[in-house]
Every structure is written in structure tokens, then in C-alpha cells.
Design a protein that fits this description.
single chain; alpha+beta; Hypothetical protein Ta1206 fold; 6-stranded mixed beta sheet
Length: 95
Amino acid sequence: MNTVDIELKAGKAKGIEIPLHNANLVLILAPKGYVMCGYLNIEAANRFGDLAAVVKGVKTVEDMLNGRVSQVSKAASGLGIEPGMDCKTALEKLF
């Protein structure tokens, strides 16, 4: 497992990369919610009422930071996080 501190305007987020057998699980945690890779699913985030966004096709935290949101949970949508938004902008809204 690899962790990375990510400095954003709003504060510090924590990036996590977990190597699994066939792909990496990538996640960035912010105080109010998180951005996850396509390995995890938005349906679970919705069931728990999480503020979550998905960035697909990433292998590293850096890939995720340079990616665009493809899906958002209902709770994250309420914060103004939308598909197509760049990951860093979505993360700023999670502070």
C-alpha cells in the first residue's frame, strides 16, 4: 500500500494506492468524502449516503488527480460535483 499527502487550496487530502492481483485500487480521502477508482462502485456509496465521485481508468493517485469525474453519488451531486469535472475541483468541494 502506498499513501500520498495531497496539498490542495482547501487543505490536505490523502491518496491511497493498494495493489491488488490484477489492478490497483486508488482512493483519495478528503474530510467530507472521497474520490474512488472504478474498482469501487457508486451504488454502495449511495446506499451509505457517502459524498463520493468516481474517476475511471486510473492506476495511480497522480492519474486520478489528472482525471475527470465519471460518476457521482447523490450526496456529492448536492455539493455541485458533476460528471466531467476535473478531480481536483471535485476534491476541493469535499472540504
